[in-house]
Amino acid sequence: TLNTSNSFEVPNRKIIATHFFGKGWAPDFWSYLNIHKVRTELEAIKADGFNTVILVVPWTGFQISVDPLIYNQEYLDLFDKLLAKIKSHGLRVILRLGYAHDNGTKNIFPHNVRIIKLAKDRKTFSAWLKYLGKIWSIASKYDNLLFGFISWEDFFYLDLTHLPLKQRLSLSSQIGYHEYLKKYSLDKISKIYNKTFSSYSQIPIPGYNSKGISLFSEFWDDFLINTVFKASKECFPRLSLEVRVDCDPEDNFSRYICHDRTFDLLPDTNLTVIYYSPTWGAPNKSDQATAKEALERLKFMINYVRSHTDNIIFIDQFNFIDNTPIFKNNTTIAPTELPLFLEEVLPILKESTIGYGLWTVRDIPANVLKAQTQPGKI
Questions:
Q1: Is residue 227 a contact partner of residue 201, using CB atoms and an 8 Å limit?
Q2: 166: which residues sit within 8 A by CB, 6+ positions away?
Q3: Could you report the per-residue pLDDT of 154-207, keeping only the tens digit for each?
Q4: 331 phi and psi angles, rounded to 5 deg
């Protein structure tokens, strides 16, 4: 059955999805998209056994300015037409909203600047919500829309822990970290950081893998759920969140800080989105795992999420192969073990999830050069 309500309804078939990038890749998908040539690509996706496609919908690509508020009408028109094409092929659709990358437009304030301003700048936050409302007004017309989700990855404040101290101190105020910390005494914060502070304005975002990561993670988790997700769901009712299932190191790897407080989302949200790669819980020392090892880690991960929520689980990126060059040291599944892994993973996915999505069905060479074509033209 097709979903015509404003809330997520479990489909009567498992979701077997892949992200749809046409002839491009994620950051240049919308600028390279030729709406007149998607029929063959969608037919191939369906012939391969997929019943759903996932579309990335970049904030900066669709809303090129937050003040004044300016939308990319060509992208919006392409979005509407593409949804119609997907429906005509009998495929369902999932939207990743707020995707961080778009190479095809000249936008005012890149995504990384916007998410900093999102914390305390009312105009930026209002623009974000209006972007979601605009996308919902188009997507909700199509009864093959399953749901949309935002991802922790596109709001990853823990990236800020890698910056120099001076920047971390400045950004601490800009993102509201100082205000959040006022729920704790300076004495307690000083003990956590192992450094004496006489005022909240002296407290920086902690450095990567240092003392204080637990406190900053708590702030980020709260911001993601209670500020971003809560308000976003009011503008895009059928919304979920891809939660961070990885944990982050603190105090020279002496312990890891996990984000399980985000897994259950809001009381009116019954779907939690996660991701998977063989790196989870693995040594990640350029080693190769057996099928048995990878399956045990996957089951542990799913049980870990399940222990913190009764929500339905969907894996939006089931990346059992990841050959991204920058991650060459990550644990992979030995090629000879992949057939067994894929055979034995099916019962796990069937029992524990409502389905999965692939990031891509084939290798995509990334082009780091910014596209110079006009949006929608090739």
A1: no
A2: none
A3: 999 999 999 999 999 999 999 999 999 999 999 999 999 999 999 999 999 999
A4: -65, 135
Q: Which residues contact 14 (CB under 8 A, 6 or more apart)?
A: 349, 350, 353, 354, 355
Separation in Å, CA 307 to CA 41, 263, 315, 350: 39, 9, 17, 18
3-state secondary structure of 272: strand
Q: Find the DSSP H helices in 103-185.
A: 111-117, 122-139, 165-174, 177-181
pLDDT higher than threshold 80 for residue 295: yes
Q: Which residue has the higher pLDDT, 54 or 369?
A: 54
Angle at 71 between CA 67 and CA 75, to 5 degrees: 155
- Report whether pLDDT(11) > 90: no
User: For residue 234, what are its two tokens?
Assistant: 């009011």
Nearest to 242 by CA among 222, 262, 214: 262
- Give dist(CA 156, CA 171) in Å, integer: 14
User: What is the distance between the alpha carbons of residues 87 and 182, in angstroms, rounded to a whole number?
Assistant: 50
Contact present, 315 and 353 (Cβ < 8 Å)? yes
Q: How confident is the model at residue 378 (pLDDT cuts 50, 70, 90)?
A: very low
Backbone angles phi, psi at 270, to 5 degrees: -105, 10
Q: What amino acid is encoded at 27 in this protein?
A: P
Would you say residue 104 has pLDDT above 50?
Answer: yes
